[in-house]
Amino acid sequence: xxxxxxxxxxxxxxxxxxxxxxxxxxxxxxxxxxxxxxxxxxxxxxxxxxxxxxxxxxxxxxxxxxxxxxxxxxxxxxxxxxxxxxxxxxxxxxxxxxxxxxxxxxxxxxxxxxxxxxxxxxxxxxxxxxxxxxxxxxxxxxxxxxxxxxxxxxxxxxxxxxxxxxxxxxxxxxxxxxxxxxxxxxxxxxxxxxxxxxxxxxxxxxxxxxxxxxxxxxxxxxxxxxxxxxxxxxxxxxxxxxxxxxxxxxxxxxxxxxxxxxxxxxxxxxxxxxxxxxxxxxxxxxxxxxxxxxxxxxxxxxxxxxxxxxxxxxxxxxxxxxxxxxxxxxxxx
Amino acid sequence: xxxxxxxxxxxxxxxxxxxxxxxxxxxxxxxxxxxxxxxxxxxxxxxxxxxxxxxxxxxxxxxxxxxxxxxxxxxxxxxxxxxxxxxxxxxxxxxxxxxxxxxxxxxxxxxxxxxxxxxxxxxxxxxxxxxxxxxxxxxxxxxxxxxxxxxxxxxxxxxxxxxxxxxxxxxxxxxxxxxxxxxxxxxxxxxxxxxxxxxxxxxxxxxxxxxxxxxxxxxxxxxxxxxxxxxxxxxxxxxxxxxxxxxxxxxxxxxxxxxx
Lengths: 333, 260
Fold this sequence. Notes:
The complex is a heterodimer.
Chain A lengths: L2 E12 L3 E12 L2 E6 L6 H8 L7 E6 L2 E2 L4 H7 E4 L11 H11 L4 H14 L15 H13 L5 E5 L7 H18 L2 E6 L2 H7 L2 E6 L2 E6 L1 H7 L3 E7 L5 H8 L4 E7 L2 E6 L2 H14 L4 E7 L3 H9 L3 H6 L6 H8 L2
Parallel strand pairs in A: 3-8, 3-9, 6-7, 7-8
Antiparallel strand pairs in A: 1-2, 1-4, 4-5, 9-10, 11-13, 11-14, 12-13
Helix pairs in contact in A: 3-4
Chain B lengths: L2 H18 L3 H20 L14 H19 L1 H11 L1 H6 L5 H31 L6 H30 L2 H17 L12 H7 L3 H14 L5 H32 L1
Helix pairs in contact in B: 1-6, 2-3, 2-6, 3-6, 3-7, 3-10, 4-7, 6-7, 7-8, 7-10, 7-11, 10-11
């Protein structure tokens, strides 16, 4: 079976020597949902822009649906659907007009076009509003129309760039269901970018973690989590930690991968609950007061920490104030 | 029908529909030209009595100039529509469909040309009915005036789109358009016979596309026996300009893609 997407050594540098992609390679098997997970600014959107022919890579190759994106961009465009980060809907037109124009650009006409538009309107529960101006629609409805626009020409590969960013939590869950159903029923390959750990965990059958323009891990969420043996111990210190705290903890038997970020201390242990007394004793011997301790099974956040050396939350927050609220949601799991 | 024409038609249809849904817009864009024609025209009515002024009736003289100037002014803003599409993500959505880039440019330019036709007809009608023009050139003269305005408008509109695609900032487009349109108007024979203007202005005006449209329109509309050589040479220059500007604009799409 051919891969739906193959990216090999993609490099992209923006003016000012900002290296957005630093050798991105990954392979997306046909069918199912592939997640590209990473904090804001990791290079997910740049990757999608290159794969969807919106931007050109400085180096490297990419094939989508078996077609080289640099050599035959028009053929790639015929094979893909793209749903960007913004609701790229025309508010001055009705929902139906938006869909009809989109279909015509792919060469659909007459009865075939009408049927396809009606089907999509029904499929996304937009039939009642179809002939009203889109600017009066709710955000969730506009988002669904945006997805429908990406599906008009029955693409082989659908790109969803941060499909739920900015949606209310309830709408987000509904969108997740919508996306799963799509992948199941339409038999298309979906490449989804997200900076929500939970979203990647819920939706993606395969995922790649992007950090600072590179793929740092690839596999199914279960595989990635299984690579991390044991439990995660998180300790909230009552005051900022220092190097000695880190070392004291690293000396405890069975405890590894100790990381200190501000007042948050993280480590792994095969038997988390059993290691806690020794950990607390070590901290006490250093005279460090502890505010809270928790033990949890491995999560994608741990996978991220393991491969990048920092928590997903801190990486996402570092990218700008606008993402803080979202990062908090993503990191709270 | 070739794909590029089909897609241009679909795009033009989208822009026309949006325009017709806010008819107030067309009224707003007419306020300025009507003021120039009726107020400025009335104020400077006696200017034709200056010795050496090449016309007897200022309304006749002024109207073709206002038609061309109006086309120039509204074309300057063409890039704002492209920017709005860019900011909403609509431009990127169209760019990842198989649609040709030419259609994305041609769509708004066709809409703009239709607007130019309507505006020009209203201005010429007002010149005739209210300002007291006589237009010895008749219908062929009016057609030439409007064709010149369309060519000028499409060329400037293409440039405005190119600028929008490259700078991607409303402020820059607004600043450029406002700082260029009036100087271009004053460095032309729109309001004044250039025989009575300083020689340097007359020299600069030779290279001013607005002047080409004004000369073509004025010659055809206000002369009973126009010098068609003058008319067609100016229309030819405008057509060349349009080709050049359209080429620049399609290249701007490529630059946009490189920067994406």
